[in-house]
Write a structure and sequence with these properties.
By secondary structure, the chain is of the alpha+beta class. The protein has one domain: Lipid/polyisoprenoid-binding, YceI-like (Lipocalin, Beta Barrel), CATH 2.40.128. The chain is built from 2 helices and 10 strands. A hairpin with a 2-residue loop joins strand 7 and strand 8.
């Protein structure tokens, strides 16, 4: 009986080691990776960047299986306004309680919950986006390309800011906004450059 138990434990440990051996976790190169945001309002738009503060992707047999990345909300910038004072006014507003409340919520996070291959280098990715400690699921297409030098994952995410209590100028919370309307959907173009193994 003891021999049978020993053999069973050995087999389970061997299978576990085999599975782990096929899975690898690769960190994101924070200096090379980028996240660009675009917010639209009635008659125009603004765009800029947010720095990533942490992140990794996991692969099994070179296929994407999971991952996560964290955003430093205090780093938000605006790239389309050239006047320094106007630029600062918008950035300060985005950091304020009207929008992302960065003093109280300095980081946001995305965690992959499901990955479905679409083609050789394309995946349908579903995950939980957390902003201001509110979490909602989003789904998008991600592309991953690997060369002899590096691996890059790219995707465009669209999230509804009203689900994260970002209320300013939102028709989900206010009526008759007129030219003060700011659309709820926010685009994020993410480029994750993975560290070399």
């Amino acid at each position: 009986m003891k021999k049978l138990v020993s053999i069973t434990l050995f087999a389970l440990l061997s299978l576990s080691s085999f599975a782990q051996g096929n899975t690898r976790k690769t960190d994101i190169d924070l200096k090379k990776s980028t996240l660009e945001w675009t917010g639209k309002k009635l008659g125009g738009e603004h765009y800029g960047q947010i720095q990533l503060s942490a992140g990794h992707l996991t692969f099994n047999k070179n296929k994407l299986t999971g991952g996560t990345f964290e955003m430093d909300m205090t780093s938000i910038t605006c790239a389309d306004i050239t006047d320094e004072k106007s630029n600062r006014r918008l950035v300060d507003h985005l950091k304020s309680e009207d929008f992302f409340s960065v003093v109280r919520f300095p980081t946001s996070k995305f965690v992959i919950t499901k990955v479905e291959p679409k083609s050789t280098n394309e995946y349908t990715v579903t995950g939980n986006l957390t902003i201001k400690e509110k979490t909602s699921s989003i789904t998008f297409t991600a592309k991953i390309n690997t060369t002899s030098n590096q691996t890059i994952a790219e995707a465009t995410l669209v999230f509804d800011r009203s689900k994260y209590d970002v209320k300013f100028g939102s028709q989900s919370f206010f009526e008759n906004l007129g030219d003060k309307l700011v659309y709820d959907d926010v685009d994020m173009s993410v480029k994750l450059v993975l560290t070399r193994q």
